Amino acid sequence: MKTDLSKILSISGQSGLFRYVSQSRAGAIVESLADMKRTCFGMNSRITTLADISIYTEDGELKLKDVFLKMKDVLGEDDAPAAKSAPEQLKAFFGKAVPEYDRDRFYVSHMKKVVEWYNALKKYASLDFTDPETEDAGESDGSENGAGQEAGKEA
Known about the structure:
Layout: E1 8-11, E2 18-23, E3 27-32, E4 38-42, E5 47-49, E6 54-57, E7 60-63, H1 64-75, H2 87-97, H3 108-124, H4 132-154
Antiparallel strand pairs: 1-2, 1-5, 2-3, 3-4, 6-7
């Protein structure tokens, strides 16, 4: 089964990753990838989808999905280095997996999160990701046409 990174969440102050289940009156209902327990997080929680995260590169930014795919190319079926690895080991790994990463703005603390997330997805979900461009193409074509028709009516 393919993993949709827009439904995989990182929640500030919480360890691990969560899968979005539903919206509630008080916030979002999520399920831990590790133990499958459901929890509700309020609107004041800082919730970020992995699809919205990028890392800094020398040329701009690289989406986390692309970083994971580059890591998978380097690692094969192996796990990423542990988050508690020495900073030099993490830097060497990212130098091999994503050689264009920005060494001034992509910190070791970020590297630790990325390798934790990679290993969690590998263990509890899948590193085979859905392609949002192909899924959204059918939906956005209809909405773009609808918006264009309405604009034509107003003019």
